[in-house]
Design a protein that fits this description.
Arc Repressor Mutant, subunit A; 289 residues; alpha+beta; Beta-Lactamase; elongated; 6-stranded antiparallel sheet
């Protein structure tokens, strides 16, 4: 007997041609984590008629956030707005992107603030209004200890996001979650052992990563010394340091770790896969990469 699988779009959610087309585009493109934000910029922008879309990852242990935005802007203005966002995020769960608060819903600023209240908020006056952003709709996804947030923005003078647009984004959310997990798998499949180690152990030096990568390919100390054009004692020192930093008890253990370690357990992907993401904290205060 054939067992029918439940549809990933929640029953009762709006289903229309625009939503169907965005779902098809999302799966057909088969993005990795580097490609996914740009694809979602276009899809979410079309789906809810937003001029600007932001893709952000929040790292709870460091209280830091990194974001990509669909439009270019002034770097100094962006740095000021990100710092202001960090200062005021604690004032409401909507700004915090708390997964427990959002659940599986798409939420709008108009769900919580009337016009007068919103225009008086420090968050609005210091972060959104200076860039012309007035209307906001967001979803959040929790993944492996960090939070991914997608937000659409409308500029001053535009109407609030409608219930229909909210329902579309909610219906799109489970597909974004599935696409994100698939994108993560594609990204991991493309990573070389050295990349995994560099992402997972930011305390490793560049040379230690190189030595570990060659160890993962089964090279001897003598081979590595010749490849890197360094002395054998230098290689031995790096190998000893690797054992200590990785908690490995031999060359085979280093190789296994290099091929299997989850690379984003310490810091989320935007900290590692792109130099374009904006942070909420000055570089000197950000966790080591």
């Amino acid at each position: 007997m054939t067992v029918l699988q439940p549809p990933i779009t929640p029953k009762g959610k709006i289903a229309d041609e625009a939503l169907s087309q965005e779902i098809i585009r999302l799966y057909e493109n088969e993005p990795d984590l580097r490609e996914l934000p740009r694809l979602l910029f276009d899809g979410v922008g079309r789906l809810v008629d937003a001029e600007v879309v932001a893709y952000a990852e929040f790292h709870p242990p460091s209280r830091d956030l990194r974001a990509l935005v669909s439009v270019g802007d002034d770097p100094e203005a962006r740095a000021r707005s990100m710092a202001a966002f960090s200062r005021h995020a604690h004032t409401h769960p909507f700004w915090q992107g708390d997964p427990g608060f959002f659940g599986e819903k798409a939420l709008r600023e108009s769900d919580f603030f009337d016009e007068e209240t919103y225009l008086g908020l420090p968050m609005a006056r210091e972060v959104f209004l200076p860039s012309g952003a007035r209307r906001i709709i967001s979803i959040v996804i929790e993944n492996e200890g960090y939070v991914v947030r997608l937000s659409g923005y409308r500029l001053l003078g535009r109407p609030a996001f409608s219930d229909e647009e909210r329902d579309r984004l909610e219906a799109f959310r489970p597909h974004i979650l599935r696409a994100y997990r698939h994108a993560q798998q594609r990204t991991l499949a493309k990573l070389k052992p050295g990349d995994r180690l560099r992402f997972a152990f930011p305390e490793l030096t560049g040379r230690q990563v190189e030595v570990a990568a060659w160890l993962a390919e089964g090279k001897s100390n003598e081979d590595i010394a010749a490849i890197l054009d360094v002395g054998i004692d230098t290689v031995k020192a790096h190998v000893k340091a690797l054992y200590s930093k990785l908690g490995a008890e031999g060359r085979l253990a280093v190789a296994v770790i290099a091929h299997t370690i989850p690379p984003f357990t310490r810091l989320p992907p935007l900290w590692k896969l792109t130099t374009e993401a904006w942070g909420t904290r000055p570089k000197a205060e950000q966790p080591a990469e």
